[in-house]
Design brief:
Elements (H helix, E strand, L loop, with lengths): L12 H5 L1 H6 L2 H12 L5 E3 L4 E8 L3 E3 L2 E8 L2 E4 L4 E13 L2 E3 L2 E9 L4 E3 L2 E2 L2 E4 L4 E3 L2 E2 L7
Parallel strand pairs: 1-3, 2-4, 3-5, 4-6, 5-6, 6-7, 6-8, 7-9, 8-10, 8-11, 9-12, 10-13
């Protein structure tokens, strides 16, 4: 494989294999770096070209730039990026929506729908922020208790 469109020079097998990890390794961390900088340093990132179907459970911050269908139950913060699309029942500490969420959303701390965000479903949290330009269709309840 070539880097920046330049052909790879022909070398012996021992030396031609060595540059590959050096060239590929820096590309992996930098691709998710912008998503991780908006969340904590130990965030789980669902990339823009990734689809997850099923339950997503965890105890770390989650950033979704791809697609998730199912249920999300995390004890930390959830961020749905502008390219993120979620069709799920969501429970988290805090939820920030810049993309699209279809489903009910419960947060123990706060739910924020940013200007580019769209939420279709019911929301429940002690603090709810809906930015000008955001789309929200459903019911809201500002409460700390969970319904049975």
């Amino acid at each position: 494989m070539s880097l920046f469109g330049k052909p790879v020079e022909s070398k012996s097998p021992a030396t031609s294999a060595a540059p590959r990890p050096t060239t590929m390794a820096p590309a992996i961390p930098s691709s998710g770096q912008s998503a991780r900088s908006s969340a904590s340093s130990s965030a789980c990132v669902v990339g823009a070209k990734t689809t997850v179907k099923g339950d997503l459970l965890g105890d770390e911050d989650v950033v979704i730039d791809g697609h998730v269908e199912g249920q999300i139950h995390i004890s930390r913060d959830l961020r749905i990026g502008q390219s993120g699309s979620v069709k799920a029942t969501v429970e988290a500490q805090s939820v920030v929506i810049s993309g699209e969420l279809i489903g009910d959303c419960t947060a123990t701390n706060r739910i924020e729908i940013q200007a580019s965000g769209k939420l279709t479903g019911n929301i429940r949290a002690p603090k709810i922020v809906i930015a000008e330009g955001a789309v929200f269709r459903g019911n809201s309840e500002m409460s700390t208790r969970r319904s049975s």
